[in-house]
Design brief:
Strand content: under 5%
Keywords: Membrane, Transmembrane, Transmembrane helix
Transmembrane segments: 12-32, 44-66, 73-91, 103-124, 136-155, 175-193, 205-223
Largest sheet: none
Order of helices and strands: HHHHHHHH
Helix content: over 70%
Length: 230
């Protein structure tokens, strides 16, 4: 939401999706015993960051309710930083740096594609909005997929000798759904917005969200127990 212009997108979009962020971070804090770190100190910081993120999301949503755009953007920035901190605390594995980068790039890809789909749906509420914010999110999704691809390619090279035929098959599907399909669907969305037809573009982005989730779930399954993401 930080890359979405508040001059071209109405305040309701930010407010509604900050409520969603509140629910997700509160859920993460509630599930901390399952998804959080095992070390006591890290566990405390995870809980603190997750609860603080939920509180920041609530405050930011209230700011957008009164259309304080600058303060609302600052609230989104604080919320984002706290989410990154909480996610980094939950990273486990031999290489903490690789795990943190894995979390950030995965979150950026999932977030950009999902937010693009949600923004496309918002045009049904406000059909008079300009298309520039949606185009910007589509471009961000393409760049995020490229960054994610580079990281996973590095992990594939490091772990390739340990993969069997079945692992190689699932890895091919991970790349097909998680990267190739995303780029193809992003190109289709870009061309559809030239018509312009936001409803069709949103439908394509729905498919892109499903592909990204399939790709990231495959990545988590393949990377389980390995020091580097695949």
């Amino acid at each position: 939401m930080l890359v979405t212009s508040s001059r071209q997108v109405d305040a309701g979009f930010y407010r509604v999706h900050l409520w969603i962020g509140l629910g997700l971070t509160a859920g993460a804090a509630a599930a901390g015993t399952t998804i959080g770190p095992t070390a006591a100190t890290s566990h405390f910081y995870f809980y603190a960051a997750a609860i603080s993120a939920a509180a920041a999301s609530y405050v930011a949503a209230v700011l957008w309710l009164y259309e304080y755009a600058l303060a609302g953007k600052m609230g989104i920035a604080i919320f984002t930083i706290l989410c990154v901190v909480a996610g980094s605390m939950a990273v486990s594995g031999a290489d903490q740096v690789a795990g943190a980068v894995d979390f950030v790039t995965g979150g950026l890809l999932l977030g950009s594609v999902t937010l693009a789909m949600l923004l496309g749906h918002w045009y049904l509420n406000n059909p008079g909005m300009k298309l520039a914010p949606l185009n910007r999110l589509v471009l961000l999704a393409v760049v995020a997929a490229l960054l994610r691809c580079l990281l996973c390619a590095w992990g594939d090279v490091r772990q390739w000798p340990q993969l069997d035929a079945l692992g190689g098959t699932f890895l091919a599907l991970r790349w097909l759904w998680g990267f190739v399909a995303v780029w193809v669907l992003a190109a289709m969305t870009w061309q559809t917005l030239k018509i312009p037809n936001t409803q069709s573009a949103t439908g394509i982005l729905y498919v892109a969200v499903i592909c990204v989730f399939l790709g990231e779930l495959s990545s988590q399954l393949l990377s389980r127990g390995l020091p580097y993401p695949l």
